[in-house]
Amino acid sequence: MSSKIYVGNLPYSVTDASLNSNFAEFGGVSSAKVMMDRDTGRSKGFGFVEMANADVAQAAIKALHGMSVDGRSIVVNLARPREERGDTGGYTASKRADVGYGTGGHGGGRY
What we know:
Layout lengths: L2 E6 L7 H9 L4 E8 L6 E9 L2 H11 L3 E2 L2 E2 L1 E4 L33
Antiparallel strand pairs: 1-3, 1-6, 2-3, 4-5
């Protein structure tokens, strides 16, 4: 089973290929991806590496966490599962029955 690793505080100069080669020293890398900003095309400063198994992933985490890359101390740890973000698109009306426009006329409430 593969293990996914989060790599944070990356300098903007790091590419998918350089991330892959740094982790390949510890074992098989299934994938290495630096996350890019959709609008600017610039690195977001973090990425993910998927390693062949948990043993090589732990060895890479232990060796690379806190390492200085272009003057930045990188953060390396196991990736957490993605959290559900829910509704992120715009206005959400209150669910409380005692708040809001009510059933009255112009701005009338329930009072």
